[in-house]
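Practice problem: predict the structure.
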Amino acid sequence: MIWLTITIALLLSLAALAFVLWPLFNAKVKPYHTENDELSELLVRKEGIMAAIKDLEFDHLVGKVSEEDYQRFDARLRRQAIVYMQQIEKIAPEATGLEDALEAEISRQRRTANGKTAAAPARVETPKVAVAAPTASSPRFCTTCGEPISSNHKFCANCGTPVASVPIASS
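Answer:
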């Protein structure tokens, strides 16, 4: 009776081992690749560098990083960001061509789905308005959340965004 139990356990173990090792020895299975691995990797790296620059600026504004360290790290991070952007620009024309073809196909599908040719919406040009420099009496607002900001605040009290130091014009 014990030999039957050992034989069944051995057969089950061999079946499990074969199931686990089969993909390693199967030559027909190909690894999965996305359409443009290099571009997506460069975009992720660029976003990481941009976030690091933003964090460094925040730490400098708060006073965690000295001026000389800030200048050194900022220069290094910006050089890295420029290199990534240049590499993306070399690859991106290929990707933009694909995006244009996709947009053309989408618009063609929309026209045929509607049964008629749909007119593209007209672009409305917004008039250019001259913005006056803020004065001492004009209120300031956060560019992120729109909340009013006191003139002595360096950060928005609502969302924490650093307030751009805009010089106040004297009249």
